[in-house]
From TrEMBL:
This is Amino acid ABC transporter permease. PROSITE patterns: ABC_TM1. The keyword Transmembrane applies. It comes from the Bacteria. Its main location: membrane. Keywords: Amino-acid transport, Cell membrane, Membrane, Transmembrane, Transmembrane helix, Transport.
């Protein structure tokens, strides 16, 4: 087998660089919105109002029980005629809604990992439950879930490849464009794999560094 990577030197690498840029933009936007929506889901799930708990729990189960690609299609074909959204926005919305279901579970687990005695101690000092959550529980829960949120970011980077099915010019779409121009399908896929690895590996190292820094700050 003779591999041909001439596209690296003939100016077509710009497609991969642009694709990687859009992959990171899509992933970052989706994670940020996923954390916001996930936090709201957690509040609803912890609510004393049963209908809120039911709706949030049902949403999480439905999202986690259906394929992401199906969710992207539902958002795009379901909302494009109503709200006139483009493919990029549809992908970001779908990834955000998908991520929020997983992030809400991470936040819930982070809150539950905080010793319940701290809430009781805060209440005994005259704090309301909301104040104790805001000042005592949530800051500790954030420390617990930050590494997991980072891992969710890594997962979203890989899952964003499904945006190519709608023609969004992210990394996989770029690989398809270059393979069409160069007729080197395997080589362009290998190059896109290198880009994904560099992004996810670098982010993984950053997450490990943050974890170590957090452990050091906890011991001081």
């Amino acid at each position: 087998m003779n591999w041909d990577f001439d596209f690296i030197t003939n100016g077509q690498m710009v497609y991969f660089l642009q694709g990687a840029k859009w992959t990171l933009i899509i992933s970052l936007a989706s994670v940020v919105l996923g954390v916001i929506f996930g936090s709201l889901l957690t509040l609803l799930k912890r609510s004393k109002i049963k209908i809120f708990k039911f709706v949030s729990s049902a949403y999480v189960e439905i999202v986690r029980g259906t394929p992401l690609l199906l969710q992207i299609f539902i958002v795009y074909f379901g909302l494009s005629n109503v709200l006139n959204i483009n493919e990029l926005l549809a992908v970001i919305i779908a990834l955000s809604l998908n991520s929020s279901a997983y992030v809400s579970e991470l936040i819930r687990a982070g809150i539950e990992a905080v010793d319940k005695g701290q809430m009781e101690a805060a209440r005994s000092l005259g704090m309301t439950e909301a104040m104790a959550m805001r000042k005592i529980v949530i800051p500790q829960a954030i420390k617990n879930i930050l590494p997991a949120i980072g891992n969710e970011f890594v997962a979203i980077i890989k899952e964003s490849s499904m945006a190519s099915t709608l023609g969004v010019a992210e990394l996989m779409y770029a690989a398809n464009v270059v393979s069409t121009k160069s007729f080197n399908k395997t080589e362009t896929l290998i190059m896109s794999a290198v880009f994904y690895f560099v992004m996810t590996f670098s982010l993984g190292r950053l997450i490990k560094y943050i974890e170590r820094r957090m452990k050091v700050s906890d011991t001081n």
